[in-house]
Every structure is written in structure tokens, then in C-alpha cells.
Amino acid sequence: MTIERILINQNKPTKTVKQKIANSITQGKGATLQKLSQLFDATENRTLIEDKKKTEKVLELIYLSSPSLYKNIISISDNYYQGSIGNVHSAYLRDGKRIAIKTLRSNIREQIQSDLINSSRLIDTASHFVDTNKFMNLEGFTSKFIQSLESECDFTNEMATYEKISGYFKDYEVLKIPKIYNEYSNKDILILEWVESDLNFDDLKSLSLDMRKKLQEELMDFFYSFPLIHGLLQEDSNISNFLITGSSVYVIDFGKFTFIPYSSRLALVKLIQTRKDNLPISLLGLYKQIGFNTELLIPIKSLLSSITDILLAPLLNKMADYNFADWNPSKKIDSIAHDSKWNIRAAAPMHYFAITRSLAGFLKISGQLNCPISTTKVSDKILNYYEKEMIQFQATPDLDNQDTDKFLNIVVKRKDSEKVNLKLPYETIYEIDSLISSEIKNKLLARNLDIKSLVEKAVMNDSEYVFKLEEEDSSFEVRIIKA
Predict the structure, then answer these.
(1) Which pLDDT score is estimated for 384?
(2) Rounded mean pLDDT, 280-290
(3) CA nearest 436: which of 417, 411, 415?
(4) What stretches of 133-241 adopt beta strand conformation (E)?
(5) pTM of this structure
């Protein structure tokens, strides 16, 4: 079967000479460094690479892993967009539909495994991007970051995220997501509807005021309401993951959505409520519940209220309109905290870093829109959703002066075998659903026990047991322990 070769038209800006040099250097240093460098790169980088041999390899992969797709392709591009982890080719199907074929870069899984093994070398590399003295446990951060890349190398995770968020976009007029073809996709290939971009993000200001205003409102809802209500945050908000076409803006990457723990979301919403209504509450207690090491925040305790108001400014706004182009939280915090601002970074949990990274891309787009909007609709939506929880809310006690730390302990005992204890970080409790087997989940369901509800109850009541299953030949329990 002959498949015609085509070319993707280059209608996006290419990288500058400086960007190309930096890109060639990072490409030689492994996938993780490339991804790490993107954390500090807010530019829109789209570069087309023409490589007929690469296209042949992609067709071989499709032939082996998705035969039905292979039979349906009539043409495929010899050039492709290259990312830090994946490549995107364009193709046409027999019914005339144009698709995007996302595949992994050659040997990417092996490269990431190598980076994980050699994370100490990566820390040295990371020091070129960040001041290692301003991060607490940079080694742990780097290791977790690399492990998150492993998840991105399995496209079924991206498909699962798509299923969780796709329904949310039905309420949007401007912000959209392309269709995923599940019947053709698998862990090695992701097939999406092709989106032809006809504008650059520098051209956003040329859109009509009504469209810019609607887009800004929907972006705020997506970057604020969705994470705080549903717990899923679009961490990789680099503007290269958004495409403008006609009267729509498409989110085209779902590989790096970060989960925000339920107790952290409750504390964040309580911060919004108390700062907006000037209610008294222990800020240190709330920051602790979010996941901060409050021992490192104590030296800047007197600045916490001002820093909190700066960080949450869009949600605390009571004026008619708010312009995100005027926010500039980094500059404002720097002006009052100076070098003490690094206490916040050093004390912060991983999901705080994900939030700040997410909002960096959001701010980049908002700066181009330069369109004031009312933000009270989003803050009211969040507060109304948690109205009942806010009434019952109790902040995590401040345990900084006590020698206690919580852990999650999974205990398994089978007949005629020794008891096995698995000790995990406390925050793992919020991801217990992804850790336990389908067998255990089914047994819980058979007893009408909902994992999420059990976790929330254990956290709110500060109980020891999350759940326990006793059977004739085995037992399985999840406990919260202090050590």
C-alpha cells in the first residue's frame, strides 16, 4: 500500500538563532534537561524538522501497534514538530479527515531512565537554571520531576486525562480541545484531530475585544476553577501548547496535568475566603495544610498576609474589572520580601511549584490579551462550591514545634506469609486510588465503600485508619501513622 508524502506548511515563527543554539545544546543532554529548560521558557517555540527516515519509522510503528490506522492513512507528512518528549506528524485519512500523529522521540524512555539513575548529575545541570541553595531537597524535587516525565511517555495517561477534562470544555465558547481518536491510540501513539493555527500569540491583541474578553474569562476559569474544584491542573502551560484558529483557542497537550490534594484545595479556598472577607485565621496553619514546611515560613511570618494577598490578588479583587497584565506577583513579592522570598520556595510542596508554573503560562497569554475582566464570577464559583466544607473547616494544627510527622502505611498480610509494611509520604493518601490493585478496589465497591470519601473522612477527622479489609486468608489495611 502506497502512502503519499506531504509537508506541513510553516505558518508559525521559527526559533531565533539564540534559541536554536540553546536547543541544540539541551538536545545533547537528555530529555529531562530539555523539559527542565522549558520551565523557564515562556516563548512560543515551534520548529518543523524534515526527516523522511523518521517518517518511515513512524509508519512502521503505526503498522505494528495500530494496524487499522495504517490501513486508513492515505498521506503523511515528511516533516514534523519536535517537542522535548514527542514528535507530531500530520496525516490524512481516507474519509478526508486530517489528524495529528503524536509519537515518542527515539529512545526517550531509555533516556529518562538514565536521567533518573543519574539524577545527581542532573542536579548539577539544574544548578545552571536555579540557585540550589534556594530549594529545599532539590534532589527529591529533581527525582519526582523525572518520574513525572515517565508518566508522559505513556499516552494512555494523556488519554485518561482527556476523558476527565473533555466535558468541562463544553461550556466554553472560545477555549476548545481537539478530538482524540481512542480507536487508533495506545501507549505509543496518540491520534488527535488536526488543528491548523492561523494566528501567532503575538497577534492576540488583534482579536476583537469581545473575543479577547471571553477568552480571558474562560482561561481564568480553566486555570483557577478547574484545579481548585476538580483537583487537576494544566501544569505545562507553555504557550506552544495552545493554538489559535478562527474564533477558537485550542489546548493541545494533556500530558502534564498535576493532581492537587483535596486538603490542599480546602486550605487554598479557606485562604481565599478569609483574605477576601478579612476574617481572622492562622495563616501558618493553612500554609501547613497546603503542604508547606512552616518552620521555614516562621522567619517571614509578618509578611505572610501581604504575600498571600499578592498571590491571590485576582481572586480577592472586588473591583469591577481586573487586568492580569498589572498583576506581576514576582515583582511585587520581591519588593517587600527581597531575599526572604526564597523561604517560600524552599518551604513549598511540589504542587505549589506546579501551580506557579501553570500560572506563568497563563500570565504570558493574559499579557497579550491585555483585557480587564470581572474576576468575582470565578471566585464566587469556587467559594459556592465549597460552601458546606468552609462552614465545617478546621485548619491543620500547627505541629512545627512537635517531633511528629505523618506517613501513610499500607499493611498486607496473607495466610502463611509475613506481614508486609509499605511506608509512604503522607500526601500519597490523596493518590491511594492509583496505588491499590483493581482487586482491592472491587472489594471496596462490593462493600459500598468509596475510596475518595474514606480518604476525606480520615483526613478531616484525623483518624488512624483509612480503611481495612479482613478476609479468611488475607488482610489489607491503609493506616495513617506518626513516626
Answers:
(1) 93
(2) 86
(3) 411
(4) 175-176, 189-193, 232-234
(5) 0.71
